[in-house]
Protein backbone atom coordinates (compact mmCIF):
# COMPACT_ATOMS: atom_id res chain seq x y z
CA UNK A 1 0.00 0.00 0.00
CA UNK A 2 2.81 2.41 0.91
CA UNK A 3 4.61 1.60 -2.32
CA UNK A 4 1.59 2.34 -4.48
CA UNK A 5 0.82 5.59 -2.67
CA UNK A 6 4.43 6.78 -2.87
CA UNK A 7 4.64 5.89 -6.55
CA UNK A 8 1.32 7.54 -7.34
CA UNK A 9 2.43 10.67 -5.54
CA UNK A 10 5.76 10.70 -7.35
CA UNK A 11 4.06 10.18 -10.71
CA UNK A 12 1.46 12.85 -10.06
CA UNK A 13 4.10 15.33 -8.99
CA UNK A 14 6.43 14.59 -11.88
CA UNK A 15 3.53 14.96 -14.32
CA UNK A 16 2.73 18.45 -13.08
CA UNK A 17 6.07 19.74 -11.88
CA UNK A 18 5.82 23.42 -11.06
CA UNK A 19 9.21 24.17 -12.61
CA UNK A 20 11.48 23.80 -9.62
CA UNK A 21 9.02 24.06 -6.74
CA UNK A 22 11.02 22.93 -3.69
CA UNK A 23 7.99 21.21 -2.13
CA UNK A 24 7.44 19.13 -5.26
CA UNK A 25 11.14 18.29 -5.43
CA UNK A 26 11.20 17.21 -1.78
CA UNK A 27 8.18 14.98 -2.35
CA UNK A 28 9.77 13.41 -5.45
CA UNK A 29 13.02 12.84 -3.55
CA UNK A 30 11.19 11.20 -0.63
CA UNK A 31 9.13 8.97 -2.91
CA UNK A 32 12.25 7.91 -4.83
CA UNK A 33 14.17 7.15 -1.64
CA UNK A 34 11.24 5.14 -0.24
CA UNK A 35 10.86 3.20 -3.46
CA UNK A 36 14.60 2.46 -3.65
CA UNK A 37 14.61 1.21 -0.06
CA UNK A 38 11.61 -1.03 -0.70
CA UNK A 39 13.15 -2.48 -3.86
CA UNK A 40 16.38 -3.17 -1.95
CA UNK A 41 14.42 -4.90 0.81
CA UNK A 42 12.51 -6.98 -1.74
CA UNK A 43 9.20 -5.34 -0.84
CA UNK A 44 8.35 -4.56 -4.46
CA UNK A 45 7.00 -7.57 -6.34
CA UNK A 46 7.52 -8.19 -10.04
CA UNK A 47 3.78 -8.20 -10.70
CA UNK A 48 1.51 -5.34 -9.62
CA UNK A 49 -1.21 -7.91 -8.88
CA UNK A 50 0.91 -10.42 -6.94
CA UNK A 51 -0.85 -11.42 -3.76
CA UNK A 52 -4.31 -10.33 -4.93
CA UNK A 53 -7.01 -12.99 -5.04
CA UNK A 54 -8.25 -11.88 -8.47
CA UNK A 55 -5.58 -10.51 -10.81
CA UNK A 56 -6.69 -7.26 -12.38
CA UNK A 57 -9.62 -6.76 -9.99
CA UNK A 58 -9.81 -3.32 -8.38
CA UNK A 59 -8.28 -3.23 -4.92
CA UNK A 60 -9.70 -1.33 -1.96
CA UNK A 61 -7.10 1.34 -2.72
CA UNK A 62 -8.19 1.53 -6.36
CA UNK A 63 -11.84 1.84 -5.32
CA UNK A 64 -11.03 4.67 -2.89
CA UNK A 65 -9.74 6.81 -5.75
CA UNK A 66 -12.12 5.71 -8.52
CA UNK A 67 -14.58 8.60 -8.17
CA UNK A 68 -11.91 11.31 -7.98
CA UNK A 69 -10.03 9.85 -10.96
CA UNK A 70 -13.18 9.59 -13.07
CA UNK A 71 -14.19 13.14 -12.16
CA UNK A 72 -10.73 14.50 -13.02
CA UNK A 73 -10.65 12.77 -16.42
CA UNK A 74 -14.17 13.94 -17.24
CA UNK A 75 -13.36 17.55 -16.26
CA UNK A 76 -10.07 17.52 -18.18
CA UNK A 77 -11.79 16.21 -21.32
CA UNK A 78 -14.46 18.93 -21.07
CA UNK A 79 -11.98 21.76 -20.37
CA UNK A 80 -11.10 23.85 -23.41
CA UNK A 81 -9.97 27.24 -24.56
CA UNK A 82 -9.72 29.35 -27.68
CA UNK A 83 -5.91 29.27 -27.64
CA UNK A 84 -3.36 26.69 -26.54
CA UNK A 85 -2.65 28.87 -23.51
CA UNK A 86 -6.31 29.04 -22.48
CA UNK A 87 -6.86 25.31 -23.08
CA UNK A 88 -3.73 24.46 -21.11
CA UNK A 89 -4.87 26.53 -18.13
CA UNK A 90 -8.39 25.05 -18.25
CA UNK A 91 -7.11 21.48 -18.41
CA UNK A 92 -4.45 22.01 -15.75
CA UNK A 93 -6.98 23.53 -13.36
CA UNK A 94 -9.09 20.38 -13.79
CA UNK A 95 -5.97 18.21 -13.38
CA UNK A 96 -4.90 19.99 -10.20
CA UNK A 97 -8.43 19.85 -8.78
CA UNK A 98 -8.28 16.09 -9.36
CA UNK A 99 -4.94 15.90 -7.53
CA UNK A 100 -6.47 17.78 -4.60
CA UNK A 101 -9.46 15.40 -4.54
CA UNK A 102 -7.11 12.39 -4.54
CA UNK A 103 -5.01 13.91 -1.76
CA UNK A 104 -8.17 14.51 0.26
CA UNK A 105 -9.00 10.80 -0.06
CA UNK A 106 -5.54 9.99 1.29
CA UNK A 107 -5.99 12.47 4.13
CA UNK A 108 -9.38 10.96 4.96
CA UNK A 109 -8.38 7.29 4.79
CA UNK A 110 -4.63 6.97 5.39
CA UNK A 111 -3.19 6.60 8.85
CA UNK A 112 0.43 6.70 7.63
CA UNK A 113 1.95 10.00 8.82
CA UNK A 114 4.27 10.25 5.81
CA UNK A 115 1.45 9.71 3.31
CA UNK A 116 -0.69 12.24 5.18
CA UNK A 117 2.19 14.76 5.10
CA UNK A 118 2.68 14.25 1.36
CA UNK A 119 -1.06 14.48 0.70
CA UNK A 120 -1.30 17.74 2.66
CA UNK A 121 1.67 19.13 0.72
CA UNK A 122 -0.15 18.25 -2.52
CA UNK A 123 -3.31 20.00 -1.31
CA UNK A 124 -1.33 23.09 -0.32
CA UNK A 125 0.78 23.30 -3.49
CA UNK A 126 -1.97 22.42 -5.96
CA UNK A 127 -4.49 24.78 -4.34
CA UNK A 128 -1.95 27.60 -4.62
CA UNK A 129 -1.27 26.72 -8.27
CA UNK A 130 -5.01 26.56 -9.07
CA UNK A 131 -5.41 30.09 -7.69
CA UNK A 132 -2.43 31.24 -9.77
CA UNK A 133 -3.90 29.71 -12.95
CA UNK A 134 -7.34 31.17 -12.26
CA UNK A 135 -5.74 34.59 -11.79
CA UNK A 136 -3.95 34.22 -15.14
CA UNK A 137 -7.21 33.15 -16.79
CA UNK A 138 -9.03 36.20 -15.37
CA UNK A 139 -6.32 38.57 -16.55
CA UNK A 140 -6.32 37.02 -20.04
CA UNK A 141 -10.06 37.47 -20.59
UniProtKB/TrEMBL annotation:
Residue span(s) of domain DUF305: 50-136
InterPro entries: DUF305_CopM-like, Ferritin-like
A Pfam entry, by short name: DUF305
Record's compositionally biased regions (Low complexity): 48-61
Chain intervals for the UniProt region annotation (Disordered): 40-61
Protein name (Swiss-Prot/TrEMBL): DUF305 domain-containing protein
Amino acid sequence: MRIAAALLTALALSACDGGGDPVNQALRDTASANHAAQVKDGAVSASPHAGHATPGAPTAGDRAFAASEASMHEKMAAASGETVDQAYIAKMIAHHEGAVEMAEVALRDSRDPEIRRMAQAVVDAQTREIAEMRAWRSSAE
